[in-house]
Design goal:
It contains 5 helices and 32 strands. By secondary structure, it is mostly beta strands. Strand 9 and strand 10 form a beta hairpin. The protein is globular and about 65 Å long.
Length: 605
């Protein structure tokens, strides 16, 4: 497959909808639809994907979504509509194989057995019914009914929903009533209305699907997009950082110097359709027995790694840059893959390759760092974001540079590329995009990154409690040496042993309203896990491996974060203040793990 023949798509701004007169709220009506998009290079077949878009602007449907531009202090209200139906109003089945044996949304179970692990007497095929969705604003700080709770999903407003199916998740009606009482805006069949206060620090947020047990498939199909929050005392004045970013009504050909980059790995069939494994054997060769002979899920894969790299919805795109500074908002949108990004002069250079340009990281998930950090490479786990500046001024016109990936083509365990693990295949997943330096069209008046003065932030206060939490995995209980069967979060007992728990076990994390707590996360698995806590931005305090001294957070982790890497055999300590009552979740953001028990509810207040 040809590389660097397609221009990078810079996601435009999502169009707004009409709102109430003078209500000072930005309104959106955003649907989820199925459509075809040229993800592969021109000349190859188009790919059927799912994506978000404004229902009032059919041309706005795209994978990844157009960007929601939000302003500090101005609420955003979105009516999220599940429009996964055909032109006759009949529901569309999933593009990818859904494993109905997991603990998942399970619409066929009806009100009594939704959000459960259904029982089967023999191994079933993939679920082919109407698809549940619910959108989570990842990094947002919002009340529970607007968080995109994983059991508040809903089916499309289709004509042929089978009799007896649950059309919403276990918490859909409760959160519907709470939202309508609080905001006076009614939810309809096949939709939910969420309001985002935008009272947090200016930051790079994103939105994606979060339905129980099928998040990996809904996100892989295309359900993700950027949400950029600007303004307030934790932002910088215009002109200090590279810009502009896209705005509504921009003329064609407008040059952008602030660009969000959603990097994902995907695989494709020869007809252009998305490939995702249809059975466990793709992971480890295990071909059964499944049900009734074992407890191994027949379709679910413990991880998935695609063989192509897709950035902003195109395989291996190219970007023409000027010899000046650019601001890139990096998002690892992969299901399981950790990325180690680097800019080099030769795409096939022996790995680890020599960096040609540094990244200056100025922000993480929770907004700006206290000072810029110069980095030759950026390790970024699934769901993490890095706000970076790259200065191309030292390269002459015509120079060709490449953004490469040196993370492994398998689960990441820490360490250095080439020493502790084999880097990604330099010919495929080891390349991300091409950057060609052109002529400067206007002087660069932005502040050099080394001279930036970033907004200050208040560290969190003293913690009132420390919780000891665990990450573990379990093999089959019926077949020797077959696994992993599922991934689990849990607590740690007084003897230091993990107490693994499943999604539906009673809540064990229940901070008091306003409490500041330290969560001490013990990773008892062999792999690194990106841990995401909804509703809060936390601080990474330190990590401790074995009996060694604790290592403080890395310089680029010393701001606020919502996702952080728990390394194998280590203890990671996070500090967070829980200042909003409600029911939320914390989980591993390797989506295959999240979908098979590595997620737990927690309650505040």
């Amino acid at each position: 497959m040809d590389k660097y023949v397609t221009p990078l798509v810079v996601p435009p701004v999502m169009p707004q909808a009409e709102g109430g007169v003078g209500d000072r709220i930005d309104h959106y009506v955003i649907g989820v639809r199925q459509f075809q998009q040229q993800v592969l290079p021109p000349g190859l077949p188009a790919t059927t994907v799912w994506g978000y878009g404004s229902t009032l602007h059919p041309d706005s449907f795209h994978y990844p979504a157009f960007t929601i531009e939000a302003r500090f202090g101005t609420p955003v209200r979105v009516r999220w509509k599940n429009q996964l139906r055909d032109h006759k109003g009949r529901y569309l089945p999933h593009l990818l194989p859904v494993d109905p044996t997991l603990h998942w949304a399970n619409p066929p179970g009806g009100a009594s057995a939704r959000d459960s692990r259904p029982g089967f007497r023999s191994t079933p095929g993939p679920y082919t019914g109407p698809v549940p969705i619910v959108t989570h604003l990842h990094g947002g700080k919002n009340s529970e009914e607007s968080d995109g709770y994983t059991e508040a999903w809903y089916l499309p407003d289709a004509l042929d929903i089978p009799a007896g199916y649950a059309e919403g998740g276990s918490f859909y009606d409760e959160f519907k009533d709470k939202f309508e009482d609080r905001f006076g805006d009614a939810w309809g069949r096949g939709d939910a209305v969420f309001q985002y206060a935008n009272a947090e620090r200016a930051s790079t947020i994103w939105f994606h699907d979060h339905a129980l047990g099928i998040t990996r498939l809904n996100v892989y199909a295309g359900l993700a997009g950027f949400y950029l929050l600007r303004g307030g005392s934790a932002d910088l004045a215009g002109g200090v950082l590279p810009g502009p970013a896209p705005r509504l009504g921009d003329p064609p050909g407008r040059k952008y110097y602030e660009i969000p980059l959603a990097i994902q790995d995907r695989s494709f069939h020869v007809d252009g359709s998305l490939f995702y494994p249809a059975g466990r054997a793709a992971f480890d060769g295990f071909k059964g027995p499944y049900i009734p002979g074992s407890d191994i899920a027949p379709i679910w894969n413990p991880e998935f790694f695609g063989n192509t790299m897709v950035t902003n919805g195109r395989t291996w795109p190219a970007l023409h840059v000027e010899p000046r500074r650019y601001r890139f908002r990096l998002l690892n949108g992969c299901n399981s893959r950790f990325l180690i990004l680097k800019i080099v002069t030769r795409p096939l250079a022996h790995r680890p390759a020599a960096p040609a340009l540094p990244f200056w990281q100025i922000g993480s998930e929770g907004g700006f760092l206290s000072a810029p950090v110069r980095r030759d490479q950026v390790l970024i786990a699934p769901a993490e974001r890095a706000d970076v500046i790259v200065d191309f001024a030292s390269f002459p016109v015509g120079s060709e540079l490449y953004l490469i990936n040196e993370g492994p083509d398998k689960a990441f365990r820490g360490g250095k590329a080439g020493t502790d693990f084999s880097p990604a295949d330099p010919a495929t997943t080891g390349q991300v995009m091409k950057l060609t330096v052109g002529a400067l069209t206007a002087p660069d008046t932005t502040v050099p990154p080394a001279q930036l003065s970033l907004p200050s932030f208040e560290p969190l206060g003293k913690a009132s409690r420390t919780r000891r939490l665990s990450l573990s995995e379990q093999n089959s209980t019926s077949l020797p040496n077959v696994g992993p069967r599922q991934m689990l979060l849990g607590t740690v007992d007084r003897n230091g042993a993990a107490v693994p728990m499943r999604w539906d076990d009673p809540v064990t994390e229940n901070p008091a309203l306003g409490a500041t707590e330290i969560w001490e996360i013990h990773n008892l698995t062999k792999d690194a896990h990106p841990i995401h806590v909804h509703e809060v931005q936390f601080q990474v305090l330190d990590r401790q491996q074995g009996g060694r001294a604790a290592r403080p957070a890395e310089p680029w982790e010393r701001g606020f974060k919502d996702t952080a890497v728990a390394y194998p055999g280590a203890v990671m300590r996070l500090k967070a203040t829980f200042d909003r009552a409600g029911r939320y979740v914390w989980h591993c953001h390797m989506l295959e793990h999240e979908d098979n028990e590595m997620m737990r509810p927690y309650t505040v207040g």
